[in-house]
Amino acid sequence: MLTYPDIDPVAISLGPLQVHWYGLMYLLAFGTAWGLGNYRASQPGSGWTKEQVSDLIFFGAMGVILGGRCGYVLFYNFPQFLEDPLWLLRVWEGGMSFHGGLLGVVLSIAWFGHKYKKSFFQIADFGAPFVPLGLMFGRLGNFIGGELWGRVADPASVPWAMVFPRAGELPRHPSQLYQAALEGFLLFVIVWFYSSRPRPQKAVSAMFLIGYGVFRSIAEFFREPDAHIGFDLFGWMSRGQLLSLPMIIFGVVLLVIAYRSPQNGESKA
User: Which residues take part in binding a 1,2-diacyl-sn-glycero-3-phospho-(1'-sn-glycerol) (predicted)?
Assistant: First the structure.
């Protein structure tokens, strides 16, 4: 059994200014996306400019933050919102949802496409490879914050199990690190290299949806469900798995459509 590292939630403190690790993870996520986007935009025939990449990251960041918060309230704790509507605005109390952030990004892509006269999947296929590393940083932020911990584990079979300060005295799976590895690093490698060659339009977006949905569903077997929710669907599927299932189905359908309709154009790196 490993000892959970006692990490100060404040990464940088300059007088009254305090930068928390979780905020720093967001900064790294958007900064990495900006760097990768500019790299891809610089490739011959990309059809993208640095100005467009900067705007895309800005619109995407707004979609992630606003959609992530609204999604958490809607999908995970709507009763609390009904009791206290202003809780929606108290983002410093925590509570973000990937699936809500995804919906926010979909809306931001639509707005960006209207501004720059690009189709939805031109934008989505270009931006999808930049997302996983941001998810990785987000999960590392969860781990540093000692939140969203895993299920109870037997140290004899899981020697890396940890006792999280706010999760009782039993050792647990560090599921945040599992998610960082699967939904973050591994998904990045898959989508980045898949998108490094011309693919039918929609295919890169489909690969991201399938990959995230599958990896999130796997990681959820080791993650402790939210205490106020428990399990959905006859007591065996977590809320994260339930929300990921439509992503997988839609991703598979989208991939089939992409390869059956190559005349729709190719997404280029």
Answer: 139
Mean pLDDT over 221-239 rounds to 74
pLDDT for 65 equals 84
Rounded to whole angstroms, the maximal C-alpha distance in the chain is 59
* Contacts by 129-132, CB closer than 8 A, 24 or more apart: 129/36, 129/40, 129/188, 129/191, 129/192, 129/195, 129/204, 129/208, 130/32, 130/33, 130/36, 130/37, 131/33, 131/208, 132/183, 132/184, 132/185, 132/187, 132/188, 132/191, 132/208, 132/212
Comparing C-alpha atoms, which of 227, 222, 230, 224 is closest to residue 178? 222
> What are the φ and ψ backbone dihedral angles of 94, each rounded to 5 degrees?
90, 165
Q: Where are the domains of the chain?
A: 10-267
Residue 267 neighbours by CB under 8 Å, 6+ apart: 121, 122, 125, 126, 195, 198, 199, 200, 201, 202, 203, 204
pLDDT at res. 90:
66
Q: Tell me, what DSSP letter sits at residue 202?
A: T
User: Which H helix or E strand runs over 14?
Assistant: strand 10-14
CB 220 within 8 A of CB 238: yes
Do 195 and 124 contact (CB within 8 A), yes or no?
no
Q: Which residues are annotated as a binding site?
A: 139
**Phi and psi at residue 150, to the nearest 5°:** -90, 180
Across 87-108, average pLDDT: 76
Q: What is the pTM of this model?
A: 0.86
